[in-house]
Specification:
Layout: E1 7-19, E2 22-34, E3 37-43, H1 44-50, E4 56-68, E5 70-76, H2 90-103, H3 109-123, E6 126-132, H4 137-150, E7 153-157, E8 159-160, H5 171-189, E9 197-203, H6 211-224, E10 227-232, H7 236-245, H8 252-259, E11 266-270, H9 276-285, E12 288-291, H10 293-298, H11 306-311, E13 316-318, H12 330-347, H13 356-363, H14 365-370, E14 388-392, H15 393-396, H16 411-421, E15 427-432, E16 435-436, H17 437-449
Parallel strand pairs: 1-4, 5-6, 6-7, 7-9, 8-9, 9-10, 10-11, 11-12, 12-13
Antiparallel strand pairs: 1-2, 2-3, 4-14, 14-15, 15-16
Helix pairs in contact: 3-4, 4-5, 5-6, 6-8, 12-13, 12-16
């Protein structure tokens, strides 16, 4: 028997990027949603006639630009309050600004800041995020509680460190406690909220982890079917220190490969200074890369060779990476992904600069593939779950559009406006599984005051 529940119809300019470099668009389009999934996408006139006998609740706006929900595959919850702090490079910056901040991310701070962080993500149009917390079990646990209330898709994990850690445990106890706590968090939260929440084992990077910790994290991720997230080859000094510390390994990537950390479930932040051998290893193992250009520029880490990674067959998505990145704004990251490759092209004419359509793919379908969800979210293919971001054209145009002939703007024009001028001021609404996250947040706020 067919459901009598009214369908939801969103009308506007509908845009997605199901393949790298391929833009699909309907200038006066519609997305029809039923039972949390995409029922159909196409022109408004055609779909309106086709579904006329069915009850459809229409949200219509001539200023709406409708995209698949944006996916942030690398960011740090505890660090957000210290954005734009410090001007050193990676290792100095971590010790002077980030570790002191994370040291205080304990207890109820996880709940308070978690709720604000998830709200800020949705304000920026993000519907799915992969997130690191600090080294503490209690704040990570409470952050998961906040994530469950947010309605978002969240992949998150307690940061694991047993070398040079900022915690108060005796060094000989750090490893066993980190493994025990991460396993407890995984057992409690992985697959919760009807599958919207997932756990990620999160060894920080090779300089902060013993070989035993890395091997154990890899084994637990395999046992529980979880993601692994870590950092690789972000900064030249970091790479050189890893070379000395792990002198029996071929290179930084070899350290992770020997520990069993590389596989289709692995998200590697940055990967700026890789050799061709390392690229081949990532492609062969199926490990993916989180490209974080705003963060890389802020810390003078370098510019990731995007085209070379893609040509090697490596899956790539985008990350805001706060607090090195300044905002939880994936439109800003898309813009930086284009502009940073332009900067490379000034000295190397062989560099291919990505288009707005290509960076949109990295923030949607490409990122979904990184997370193993390419057949679930990331585009408007019928049957996929309805994770959607709606942008406001009037907020993107100078003077609110009063001096622009809006009907002459093509879908490519509208996408470029989002990439170059997009941000929270221009986000109209976000949906996960067809549910408006604005409604989720209003309901949660109402319940909190009852």
């Amino acid at each position: 028997m067919e459901s009598t529940t009214p369908l939801l119809g969103l009308r506007g300019c509908v845009i997605d990027a199901p393949e790298y470099g391929k833009l699909r668009a309907w200038r006066d389009g519609a997305v029809i949603i039923g039972d949390g999934r995409i029922v159909e996408v196409g022109s408004f006139q055609f779909l309106g006639r086709k579904h006329r006998p069915q009850p459809i609740h229409w949200q219509q706006s001539d200023r709406a630009i409708i995209f698949p929900g944006l996916i942030d595959i690398h960011t740090h919850l505890p660090q957000y309050p210290v954005v734009a702090r410090g001007r050193g490079q990676l290792l100095e910056w971590l010790h002077q600004h980030i570790f002191p901040r994370e040291r205080n991310f304990t207890g109820k701070i996880g709940a308070r800041e978690g709720a604000a962080f998830f709200s800020e993500l949705t304000r920026n149009g993000t519907t799915t995020a992969a997130i690191y917390t600090a080294i503490y079990e209690d704040s990570c646990d409470l952050a998961f509680e906040a994530a469950a209330q947010s309605g978002m898709r969240i992949i998150m994990g307690q940061t694991m460190m047993d070398v040079g850690t900022y915690g108060t445990l005796q060094p000989r106890k750090v490893l066993s406690v980190a493994l025990l706590e991460s396993e407890r968090l995984c057992r409690k939260w992985h697959g919760e909220a009807d599958g919207l929440l997932e756990y990620a084992f999160s060894p920080r990077f090779a300089l902060a982890c013993s070989e035993r910790l890395m091997r154990s994290a890899a084994e637990m991720a395999l046992e529980f079917g979880c993601h692994i997230q870590t950092h690789l080859s972000e900064n030249r000094e970091e790479v050189e220190r890893v070379r000395h510390l792990f002198s029996k390994s071929l290179d930084y990537t070899d350290v992770y490969e020997k520990a069993g950390l590389l596989g289709p479930q692995t998200i590697l932040g940055h990967c700026i200074h890789l050799s061709q051998r390392e690229r081949c290893v990532l492609a062969e193992t199926g490990a993916s890369v989180a490209h974080c250009p705003t963060a890389n520029l802020y810390l003078s880490s370098g510019i990731m060779p995007l085209g070379e990674h893609l040509a090697a067959g490596i899956k790539v998505g985008l990350g805001t990476d706060v607090a090195a990145g300044p905002e939880l704004n994936l439109w800003q990251v898309m813009r930086s992904a284009i502009e940073s490759q332009k900067a490379r092209s000034f000295s190397d004419p062989n560099v291919i600069v990505p288009s707005p359509a290509e960076v949109l793919h990295l923030a949607t379908q490409g990122a979904a593939a990184v997370l193993g969800k390419g057949d679930i979210i990331g585009s408007f293919d019928p049957g996929k779950e309805a994770d959607i971001t709606v942008m406001d054209l009037a907020a993107l145009l100078p003077y609110g559009g009063t001096e622009t002939k809006i009907e002459d703007l093509t879908p490519d024009d509208l996408l470029a406006l989002c990439v170059y001028r997009g941000g929270p001021h221009a986000v109209l609404e976000t949906f996960v599984r067809g549910v408006s996250l604005a409604h989720v947040h209003r309901d949660a706020a109402h319940a909190a005051h009852e």
